[in-house]
Amino acid sequence: MTPTPGTTLSDAEYRPAIHFSPRIGFMNDPNGLVHDGTQWHLYYQFDPFAPYAGRVHWGHATSPDLYHWQDQPVAIDQTPAGEAFSGSAVMDAHNTSGLFPEGTGGLVALYTRAAPDRQSQYLAWSTDSGLTFTEYAQNPVLDLQLSSFRDPQVFFHAPTQRWIMCVALSRDHQIAFFGSSNLLQWTELSRFGPSGMTGVDYECPNLLEVPIEGGKTAWVLFVSINPGAPQGGSATQYFVGTFDGTRFVPESDTTEFVDFAKDFYALQFFTNVPSGNPVSIGWLNNWQYCQETPANSWRGVMSLPRRVSLAPDTTQRLKLIQRPEDLTPLRGTAADATPPSRMDAGSSWETPLPASAAHEVRMSVEIDAQPAGLPPGDKGRSGRFVLNFLNSNEETLSIGFDAFTAQLWLDRGKLKGFSHPFFTNSFSAALTPDQRKITLHIVLDKCSVEVFVNNGQQTGSALLFPATPLDRLRLSATGAGATLSHFELFPLKQTVRAEEGQI
Amino acid sequence: MTPTPGTTLSDAEYRPAIHFSPRIGFMNDPNGLVHDGTQWHLYYQFDPFAPYAGRVHWGHATSPDLYHWQDQPVAIDQTPAGEAFSGSAVMDAHNTSGLFPEGTGGLVALYTRAAPDRQSQYLAWSTDSGLTFTEYAQNPVLDLQLSSFRDPQVFFHAPTQRWIMCVALSRDHQIAFFGSSNLLQWTELSRFGPSGMTGVDYECPNLLEVPIEGGKTAWVLFVSINPGAPQGGSATQYFVGTFDGTRFVPESDTTEFVDFAKDFYALQFFTNVPSGNPVSIGWLNNWQYCQETPANSWRGVMSLPRRVSLAPDTTQRLKLIQRPEDLTPLRGTAADATPPSRMDAGSSWETPLPASAAHEVRMSVEIDAQPAGLPPGDKGRSGRFVLNFLNSNEETLSIGFDAFTAQLWLDRGKLKGFSHPFFTNSFSAALTPDQRKITLHIVLDKCSVEVFVNNGQQTGSALLFPATPLDRLRLSATGAGATLSHFELFPLKQTVRAEEGQI
Known about the structure:
Chains A, B: InterPro entries: ConA-like_dom_sf (IPR013320), Glyco_hydro_32 (IPR001362), Glyco_hydro_32_AS (IPR018053), Glyco_hydro_32_C (IPR013189), Glyco_hydro_32_N (IPR013148), Glyco_hydro_beta-prop_sf (IPR023296). Chains A, B: Residues 19-324 form the Glycosyl hydrolase family 32 N-terminal domain. Chains A, B: Pfam families: Glyco_hydro_32C, Glyco_hydro_32N. Chains A, B: One of its GO terms (biological process) is sucrose catabolic process. The structure is a homodimer. By secondary structure, chain A is mainly β. The first copy, chain A, has two domains: 20-303, Glycosyl hydrolase domain, family 43 (Tachylectin-2, Chain A), CATH 2.115.10.20; 328-500, Exo-inulinase, domain 1 (Jelly Rolls, Sandwich), CATH 2.60.120. Chain A has one helix spanning 11-14; strands spanning 25-35, 40-47, 57-63, 70-76, 83-92, 106-115, 118-126, 134-135, 150-157, 162-169, 174-180, 187-192, 195-196, 201-211, 217-226, 235-243, 248-250, 253-254, 256-257, 265-269, 279-283, 298-299, 306-312, 318-324, 342-343, 348-352, 358-367, 384-390, 396-402, 407-414, 426-430, 437-445, 448-453, 458-463, 472-478, 482-492. A six-stranded antiparallel β-sheet of chain A has the order 25-36-27-32-33-34, with no helix packed on it. Chain A has a six-stranded antiparallel β-sheet with strand order 26-35-28-29-30-31, with no helix packed on it. The longest helix of chain A is centred in the N-terminal third of the chain and has 4 residues, at 11-14. Chains A and B meet through strand 13, strand 18, strand 19, strand 28 and strand 29 of A and strand 13, strand 18, strand 19, strand 28 and strand 29 of B. Strand 13 of chain A pairs parallel with strand 18 (253-254) of chain B, so a sheet runs across the interface.
C-alpha cells in the first residue's frame, strides 16, 4: 500500500510556531543539549540536503529562553570517517581535557562517528561558545570495534569527581557506563541490561539525578528503543534507581514509558542547567513514518522543553512528572471564552480558537459519580468528558476522559491530511484509579499536540496533519454531567523565527 | 463523544465460526481450562443475563478437539458470597483433596469469590466430569482479607510433589505463589514483582514449563495487566525463567507481550494436556471497548487454541512461539487461486474469498533487496508487501510487511462497522532485522483476525467490525518486487454450533 497523503496543508502551514523545526532538510534526535552560562544550545541530527534521514550532520540553534531559537551554522559535519551521529555536550569549565588554552575552558561534544561497519565515540571542542568545533586528533576516544555502539551521553559526577559516559550497545540491549578524568581516556565501569522492553535496538541513553517532589532525589536512566516499541516503532522508556558513580541499580524490575502516545523519541537532558528542575527535549516523531509525513522541504519537530521531576504514584512508585517550560511569556490575551461551570450529560460548548499559530488550554473538570443501581448496559455506565479541536472540514482532534475507568484518550484519527499504516490513530493512558477529576494542559501548535495530564503525571505527544487548520474548540459531557473548576484558552506568540513571520 | 457504531452487521453475521463465543450474554476470561482424560473443558467468565460485564458466573463448553465446542450449563453460579471470578481447574486424580469417594478422583476448580470489599479463593469439586460443582463447605480455602487478590492458577509440580497456586495481588503488582498437598490448605512460598509493565492491576497469572524448540524447557510466567497496557487497556506480558517449586526467577529483567495487537487478554493454559506442546486460549478482546462493540445479544470471543513453545531469537533470548492448534481437519477444498510467483513493484493480484464463514491463508514471500545508490527520498527506499481482505464497500483490512525496516502492520482502520476512541486502528511488530522474507499464517473468522508471523514468532489478534462482509483477497507489492514461494487459501468449516448452522 502506498501511503496516501491525501489533501495536505503546505510545508509552511504545518510548521510549528513555538517548537523548533529545521528550516530545510531532515531533523531527528536532539544532541548536545547544554547551557553554556549564557544561552541554551540545541544541536540536532540533521540532513541539510533533503527531508529524509541520511548524511547526518549536527545542526545547531541557540536560545536565551528555550523558546526563541536562532538558527546557527552546522556545527559538526559528516566526514570521511562517517556521519555525525547522536551525542552530548558538556562545559569543560576547568579544562580537564587540557584542550583549551590554560586558564580557560569551553564546550566539548562527544558523539558517535558512524561508518557502515563501525560506530565509535569521537570528541570535538569549541573555543567559540559552541558555534564551531575542532575534532580531537586522536579520535576515536572510545572504540570497541563494534558496529552497534552509539549515542554517548556525558555528565560530570561530582561525588566521584569524574566524567561519566552512558552509551548504548544497541543490538545487545545494554547500556555501558564509562568513567574519565579528562574526557579523552575512558574506562568501563559497568553495564545495565537487557532490561525493560528491548525492541530491536537500544539508543540514546540518558542518566541523571532527578528531584523528587517534596525533597530528595533519585537517578533515572532513560533508554530509547527502535523499532519494536509496544505501540510500534520508536519510544523512550525509563528506569528509576540509584547511581553510585559506577553502577546504576534500578529500584524495581519495572519499566515505564515517558509518553503514552508514539511520537516522542530520543529524549535528552540539558547539562549545566543554571537553575530549576532538569530540562529535556525529545524528537516529536516516530521512525515508522518520519520520512513520509507530508512535506516538501523540511521534516522534524522537537518537543516543548520540559521540566522534569519525580513523584510517588498511589502505589508509592516514583513516576516521571513532565511539565512544559513556563509558557506565560508566550501568552497573548486570554480568549474571551467562558464555558459553563456546570455541563449536564449530553451538553456541549464551543468557541472559536483565537487567531494564532499556537494555542494553550488549561482546564480542570470533575465528572459526576456513576449513578447507583443502573441496569446493566445502561450507557450511563460510561461518563466521558471530551475536548475537541475541530474545523468545518469535518476534522476533529479528540482528547477525552473516560471517568469511570479513569482512562484518557488522544485520538488524531479523524484528521485527513495523512494516512499511513503505521500512523496509529489513537493513544490512551490509565490515570489514577477511581479519580473522576482531571486537569489538562494542552499545547496545540500546527502539526503537533502535547497533552500534560494531572499536572504532568502523564504526557502524550503526537504529530497531527489536519487537511484544514483546526479553528474551533468544543467541550462535551457524555453519559454523565461534569463540573468545570478551571478553564483558560490562550493564543501563544510565535517564537521560532518570529522575526521572519511564519515561514 | 458517544461511540459511533455506524452501520454494522447483525449479531449473527459477526459471530465466528471456529472461535468459541457465548450463545447469549457477555463472556470474558477463559477459566478452568482442563483436559479430563476424555475431552477439553472451556469454562469462562459469563454474565448470562446481558451482553455486559457483571453478575459473573462460570459458563462452560466442552470439546473433543478444541474446535468443536458443545455448550454446557453454567458450572459455577454467582452466590450471596460473591461473583465467581476467574480461576483454574485441575484433575485431582489421586484424590489428594479427600473430597472424592475413596479410590476415585475428579475435577477441582479453584477460583475467586468476589464480594465488593473482599476477594478470596474458593474451591469446588465435580463428580460428574465437570458438569456441576459442589462448593467446599469450609470455603474460602485462601483468604488474606484483601479486596484485590484474585485469579488463582493451580497446577501440580511433580518434582516437589505438591500443588502450586499462582494468584495476583493485583493492585500491589505482585504474583504470590502458594503450595499445598491437598488443594485445601495453602502455604505462601514466595512473591514475584512488581516487574515488567504493571498497569493499574495485575491479573490472571499463569506459570508453566514450556518446551524450548530443539530440546530442554524453561518456565514462563504470564501476567495480564489492566488498564494501562502500553497500547491501552488490557494486555498479557510474559517472563521467562526458572521455577524450583518455591520461587520463580526470571532469566532477565526484560518483559515481552504475548500479542502485538491489543485484543488478547487473560491468557490461560490447559492442565492435564494429553500430549504435545502446552495449549492456551485467551480472550479476544480489550476491556477498553468490550462492552461497546456492536452487538445486541452476545459479546465475547475466545482466541484460537494455540500450541506454545519457546525459541531463541537472534539475540539468544527465549521468546514465545504460538501456533494455532492443527487446522487441517477444518479445511474445505483449497481455493483455486494461484497468485503469480513473481510480483513486480506496483503490481497486485486479487481473488474472491471462497464461500465460507472463516478463511485461512498461508503464504511465504521474499521482497527484493533495496536497490543500491538510490537518491535520498526515492520511494524505492520502502519496499512493502500487502495482503488486503476487502469488499465493494471500500472497506479493507490490511496486513503489510515493510521489508527494509522488517516491520509488520495490521490495520483495521478502514473497516466501517465500529468507531470508538479506544478502538486503535493499527498495530505493528518488529521482526528479525534485515530479514526480507516473511511467512504469514492468517485466520479470518467474522469479527476476528489472528496473524501468526514467521512460524509463530509474532502473533497479532484483533477484533474486526466490517459493515459489509469482506469477500476478496488482494496481494500487492509496492516500492519493491516480491517473490512468492508459497500461497494457500482455504475455507474453514464451521465448528462452533455447526449442527445449528450459523446462529
